[in-house]
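Support request, please re-run this one:
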Amino acid sequence: MLFNSMDLVKKLNKELLVLPGHYMNWEEANDPLIFAMSLGRIIERNKDIYQIDNLADFITFIRDNMRPQPEEYALIRQANANLTQFDEDKQEELDLGKNECAATAYAAAQKEKEAKETA
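Re-run finished. Output below.
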């Protein structure tokens, strides 16, 4: 499903402005301090995944770039599925806990890769 969605995204207007779900730091904002980037630039920055043209290679790419999740994530999924309940202190601890995002990790890796390529 994600592979097919990305194929649809590639067909959209490359000038379309995309707003992030979150950002890592203020350096990602443009001059008027807006966090947005053209779809074309996003696809170019993430060309490693957008160039994949078959599902098998896409799945391999995703698996190779996944990091182990913090243990807290399993607890959060259990709570979200109403399989377990936590007291308010534990809920707050889980809510404020480690916030790791695959997109953030990938963006950091891409930034490091780009820095090496321009060096």
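Residues 1-66 form one domain. The two ends are 37 Å apart (CA to CA).
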